[in-house]
Design a protein that fits this description.
Number of domains: 4
Radius of gyration: 30 Å
CATH architecture of the largest domain: Up-down Bundle
Largest sheet: 4 strands, parallel
Number of strands: 7
CATH topology of the largest domain: Fumarate Reductase Cytochrome B subunit
Structural class: mainly alpha
Helix content: 55-70%
Number of helices: 29
Strand order of the largest sheet: 2-1-3-4
Shape: elongated
CATH class of the largest domain: Mainly Alpha
Bound molecules: iron/sulfur cluster
Strand content: under 5%
Distance between the termini: 85 Å
Length: 670
């Protein structure tokens, strides 16, 4: 349909669009490629299936908390896919008169209907999103409004010009109407307007060009904006982590020259891909307890600033000129950001494209602690206490087993046929509330006839807090000593009362075995076979197997707070509820945020041992939810959470609401 001159101009437009599209993509690909190595190519088909299903079913955005926004996104996504297909047809029509991609097939008829429906859903979606962004203006959307305005405008223009073209196309060539109900309606209006055939032909030509310019403008602009997530997002989902969300990767301290992330060059290629996949939706920010409590941390801004820094430092990154780059903190992340993360994982759980924030934050902490010795002052005492007495308070290590003396808890070496090693943990050994939990579990295990022992004064802190506070060296020292004890006593099963110990022992210790000197292949195989269970799981199984009998429950008014490292990071949300249901009857009154959407108590990520001096206390936000539930008893399954909830309720003058661990509750009902 185009003249020779028009075809030449059109070819130039295609080339210019291709250039504008590929230049920023190649730039970003080079930055991603400059990242440190990391293997994310295992389980190819599993990854492929997951990414395909997630993208096609739009499980990335079609979720509870923003369901309507997700629905609109679906409309735009499928609409855009249809328009992309139509753009191929439209482009070829420029060179081949009357070209239609699907010819006279039935699918072609069907597609003509689909594309009109798409025009409708895309327009509705864009109007809704524009209204939400520019009129409602939620905090989550605060970044790059210009990007959004341009993209919404281009999508609206592309849709409007398509309808303009379709109407005049049908008016000009009625046989192209097919099942285009919108186009036919517009063509009808054109017919009634009395426009002559020549004017219709002119409009037809102008409309074709207008649509081409709008669509090609959109294609050229996308990779320059946050809408690059259309391409980077599915790849990011494909390369998602295959390890549990609460697990941190081990660092080989012997072989590494740099510990953690000191400069942008220390991020892996997957970290860099994360930064380019972020769509700035702010879901992570909405879920973040640090942000909600007024701390200077927003996981969204972590990714936003990282992307900006990567683009600003692209030359040094791709040329591997490490010295030309500023330090990550404070160059890209601030001290306030990196030291207020509880590693609760809410951001990662919410992120539609499965970005991993925690390892970036902990990576920054590692370099601050191990390379630069710059960290909050109060951590000096924490690290020193850990080094000297293997517990956070610095209480003499010889007192570690005192909690169990009156209960006559034996050392594992004195229980040769032990079913379980009871991992007491620092809270269970030294903290008053923790000791009650430990004593309760002892009572339960004895009632069930389970033989168990502890490591007594030999047990060291599992190292969870030290690791999440960036002190990988301290973590590995503690872990190696504990692993040596597991080997010495031939441990086969471990039960924990603390989800932090559970997560560390279950997921992180096995990954350290190659770094522990002196272990034979046989030792490693035995250590890898150790089964680690949380007390929630074990009590649940004991009740299920009728190994413990509980008094008939009296109807209780209770709620349950899901610890992040039990629920979200390890998927144990049903077991504690089933235990509580057996002991207390009925179901818990669920808190506003529960299950794997739970809200952190504020103690994770080692923050139990730092001063919470900025903003509101996170445990106050959580206890507000407990109070709002109207429950008279708040159950937890973590000694950290127990302490935070109890303190929060005390601060709020609501000590009438009892806080108990599930082990305590079960022990009371034995
Ligand atoms: S892990 Fe939790 S505290 Fe840290 S950034 Fe994510 S949501 Fe915020
Ligand atoms: S990190 Fe994920 S959840 Fe957060 S703004 Fe980016 S895409 Fe959204």
């Amino acid at each position: 349909m185009l003249t020779t001159w028009e075809k030449a101009i059109f070819v130039l437009l295609i080339l210019a669009t291709a250039g504008a599209f590929w230049v920023p993509i190649v730039r970003r690909l080079r930055i991603i490629g400059a990242g440190a190595a990391e293997d994310r190519f295992n389980d190819f088909w599993k990854r492929f299936r997951h990414a395909l299903v997630k993208v096609l079913c739009q499980r990335c955005t079609l979720r509870g908390e923003r369901f309507f926004t997700g629905l609109m996104h679906v409309g735009i996504f499928y609409g855009a896919l249809s328009f992309d297909t139509m753009t191929v047809s439209h482009t070829l029509e420029g060179f081949i008169d009357g070209f239609y991609l699907f010819g006279k097939s039935n699918f072609g008829l069907f597609f003509s209907l689909v594309i009109d429906v798409a025009a409708f859903t895309v327009m509705a979606g864009v109007i809704f999103l524009a209204f939400r962004r520019f009129v409602v203006r939620p905090k989550a959307y605060a970044t790059t409004p210009g990007d959004s305005a341009i993209i919404y405008l281009l999508i609206a223009l592309a849709t409007a010009t398509f309808l303009y073209f379709e109407g005049f196309s049908i008016a000009h060539h009625p046989e192209t109407a097919r099942l285009s109900f919108l186009g036919s309606w517009i063509a009808g209006a054109i017919g009634k307007s009395g426009l002559g055939a020549e004017a219709i032909a002119t409009h037809f030509r102008i409309a074709w060009w207008a649509h081409v310019v709008a669509v090609y403008g959109f294609i050229a602009y996308v990779p320059h904006s946050k809408y690059l997530h259309m391409f980077a997002g599915p790849f990011n989902v494909f390369f998602r982590r295959s390890t549990p969300s609460g697990e941190l990767a081990a660092v080989d301290l012997e072989k590494s020259e740099v510990f953690g992330v000191e400069k942008l060059t220390d991020f892996t290629w997957k970290d860099n891909l994360d930064a380019f996949a972020c769509m700035e939706c702010g879901r992570c920010q909405d879920a973040c307890p640090a942000f909600a409590s007024g701390k200077p941390l927003s996981p969204k801004m972590i990714m936003f600033n990282m992307e900006k820094a990567l683009l600003a430092g692209d030359k040094a990154l791709t040329a591997k000129k490490r010295d030309d780059l500023p330090e990550l903190v404070p160059g890209t992340f601030t001290e306030g950001e990196i030291w207020t993360c509880t590693t609760c994982g809410a951001c990662q759980k919410e992120c539609p494209v499965e970005i991993e924030h925690i390892r970036k934050i902990v990576g920054a902490r590692r370099s601050r602690v191990l390379m630069q010795s710059k960290f909050p002052q109060e951590l000096n005492a924490f690290f020193r206490n850990m080094e000297t007495n293997s517990n956070p308070w610095g209480i003499g290590f010889s007192k570690r087993a005192e909690w169990g003396e009156t209960l006559e808890v034996r050392h594992i070496k004195d229980v040769p046929d032990a079913d379980y090693l009871f991992w007491v943990g620092c809270m269970g050994a030294y903290d008053d509330a923790g000791k009650t939990i430990a004593g309760s579990l002892v009572k339960i295990l004895r009632a069930a006839g389970i033989k168990f022992g502890t490591l007594g004064i030999e047990e060291k802190c599992c190292g969870d807090s030290a690791r999440r506070l960036g002190n990988e060296y301290l973590f590995q020292s503690l872990a190696q000593e504990n692993i040596a004890l597991f080997k010495t006593y031939g441990i086969k099963k471990i039960v924990t009362i603390c989800p932090h110990g559970y997560n560390t022992l279950k997921h992180e210790y096995p990954k350290l075995l190659d770094l522990v000197p002196g272990l034979t292949a046989e030792d490693k195989a035995k250590l890898l076979a150790i089964e680690v269970v949380s007390h929630s799981e074990l009590i649940h199984d004991l009740i299920g197997a009728d190994k413990i009998a509980l008094k008939a429950p009296a109807p209780a008014n209770y709620t349950f707070h899901d610890p992040c490292y039990l629920g979200r990071h390890n998927g144990l949300t049903k077991e504690p509820r089933a235990v509580l249901c057996s002991a207390l009857g009925g179901k818990p009154k669920e808190l506003k945020r529960h299950g794997d959407d739970s809200f952190c108590c504020g103690a994770g990520g080692g923050l139990m041992w730092t001063e919470e001096s900025l903003g509101t206390r996170i445990n106050h936000l959580r206890t507000d939810e407990v109070i709002a539930s109207g429950a008279g008893l708040a159950a937890a399954a973590c000694p950290f959470c127990l302490t935070m909830l109890r303190d929060g309720l005390k601060d709020k003058g609501r000590e009438d609401i009892k806080v108990k661990d599930i082990a305590q509750i079960v022990a009371e009902y034995l």
